[in-house]
Amino acid sequence: MPAGMRSGELVHAVVPSPNFGERQLPVTMVVLHYTEMQPVEQALGKLINPDSGVSAHYLISETGTVTQLVPESKRAWHAGVSCWRGITDVNSASVGIELDHPGHAGGYREFADAQIDALIPLLAEIVEDYDIPRANVIGHSDVAPARKADPGELFPWDRLAQYGLCLPKPEKLELGDPFQNDGAFMLALERFGYDITDATAAVTAFQRRWRPEIIDGAIDGQVGAILFQLLLDRDRGLAR
Fold it and tell me: What is the b/e burial string over 60-97, where b = at least 16 CB atoms within 10 angstroms of the residue's CB?
């Protein structure tokens, strides 16, 4: 099997995309996307079109069909201008997985169970093979908060967390606002991994991932407590 290709148990089809390059960094993260295009054939057509300039390593349909487009050994073009934990060449450092979904522009809704059922074992093998920290299994909106909203507030991060494939939402929060002011919160948000160039966008992305019930881009005591706990857990070695 060529380098960077997965077995047939996890991958149901291989449709090569010409849109890739050479990695400049080791793989340390996985970025999850939605296609915001339907049907899935339309998204597939774009991801393999040499004129589109975009691709991903995998595309998972709503019925759970996993298609590999780019070998993991290569740099797929999925993240665009992005940053996570100081890494600005996210494409070189990540495996990109596209989920067939209409997105916010096409009638945003919950993700299909069959799709998530197919994602979990694929993601588990990728995370194990590259020893990817849970904190580095992230959404496109996390690495490009000013541009992207996917996979969005309805993505079932809790299901992934049950299998240890991403960080769980902190359950026990300290009372009170742990940050003296908004500036302190933003510096902590940057420390956690977000690009804070656009402060409101960064806060919105954090809320979309960690407090999806209210997404308003405003810093409040609850999001402060969540961020503080995430950093505290990481400092204690509990949130790798």
Answer: bbbebbbbbbbbbebbbbbbeebbbbebeebbbbbbbb
Name the pTM for this structure.
0.96
Q: Beta strand 137-139 with 29-34: parallel, antiparallel or unpaired?
A: parallel
Per-residue pLDDT at 233: 87
**Count of CB atoms situated within 10 Å of the CB of 28:** 18
Cα separation, 40 vs 238, in Å, equals 38
Instruction: Give catalytic residue positions.
Output: 98
Q: Read off the pLDDT of residues 107-158 as tens digits, 9 standing for 90 and up.
A: 999 999 999 999 999 999 999 999 999 999 999 999 999 999 999 999 999 9
Per residue in 206-238, is it b (16+ CB within 10 Å) or e — as a string?
bbbbbbeeebeeebeeebbbbbbbbbebbeeee
For residues 24 and 73, the answer to whether their CB atoms sit within 8 Å is: no
Which residues on neighbouring strands pair with residue 138, listed in sequence order?
Answer: 31
* C-alpha distances in Å from residue 40, one per residue of 61, 87, 100, 169: 6, 31, 6, 31
Lowest mean pLDDT among 98-102, 141-145, 190-194, 219-223: 219-223
Length of the chain: 240
What is the separation, in whole angstroms, between the first and last Cα of the chain? 31
Tokens 């990540």 locate to 94
Looking at the DSSP bridge assignments, the partners of residue 76 are 20
CB 135 within 8 A of CB 239: yes
